[in-house]
Amino acid sequence: MAEKELYRNGPYADFFCQGVRRGDMLFIAGQVGVDAQGHIPDALSEQLTIAYQNISAVLEKFNASMDDIVDETMFVTDMADCMANVGPVFAAREAAYGKKPEVAQTLIGTTALVDPAMKIEIKVIAKLA
Amino acid sequence: MAEKELYRNGPYADFFCQGVRRGDMLFIAGQVGVDAQGHIPDALSEQLTIAYQNISAVLEKFNASMDDIVDETMFVTDMADCMANVGPVFAAREAAYGKKPEVAQTLIGTTALVDPAMKIEIKVIAKLA
Amino acid sequence: MAEKELYRNGPYADFFCQGVRRGDMLFIAGQVGVDAQGHIPDALSEQLTIAYQNISAVLEKFNASMDDIVDETMFVTDMADCMANVGPVFAAREAAYGKKPEVAQTLIGTTALVDPAMKIEIKVIAKLA
What are phi and psi of A123, to 5 degrees? Predict the structure, then answer.
């Protein structure tokens, strides 16, 4: 049986892993728009950009890249705001992927994320082979 | 490494894929109750039927079928309405599968989907081998 | 092609499977804090404990264990309550895993689960090889 490879980091490292790989599947914890200094910008598109930077950093720990993402679920606290800014939001997302995203996507409204300042959480699954 | 096979379609084709296959895993974007003419019926059970038709259409592009679905997450905007109509809702779902669904399921309330007229979004994962 | 192995149980056995395995992937239906007698305790941490017992029971049907879980999504109806009780909640979770959980995690607020008394639903994916 393939061992699980774990990547723990951040203030919740005792509670969960940022990434877990077993065999060819890599599951990444939902990432949010908090930068390395703990700052959360106000704009949804800026939070999105940081969330993808966090995703990318986890992928790197497993020698993987954004190209390995196959599935993405976005949870947003304010869908009306998200759709009102869908231009900059999806432009920031395309910039994060570096091309038209080659992923399945699901976009869902949520009542709340773990911190009231958070507007978006992005959960991705990567397939490595 | 297995190449990713992508299926792009619809008004959001620049933003995400309706389906992404790598190896034996097929991830399908959350599907909603919008028919090919852009119409969204009012009843939850009718939206559900169309969402499954859209899922089935994506599966066909990968030479797969509803039988290959292993996991399903349903997001509904009005859980009380969903449970009040659970009979017709689950009958429509069984009709979509053509039998008792052979899938794991998770049913979750959401604040909003991308269009206020949408009442349900269905996200499935298929395993092809 | 690997056959799907299905585990059906409980009042919704006609509607979905508690677990579906195909090959090395095991998808488990979202589990809630309802015990075998249909009782739902009030406290979030108690519901969480029962939900994990239910998850563990499904894993056992597939000769798997909590160690095989790679991904976990928690949906909670009251994020503020969850975070206000994050100590006992995560202690109960660590007890369920028997160690620091070796899983990716995503924690999301939901408007509603299928029964108004439910405060948490936990959806996990296991990778068996």
Answer: -115, 125
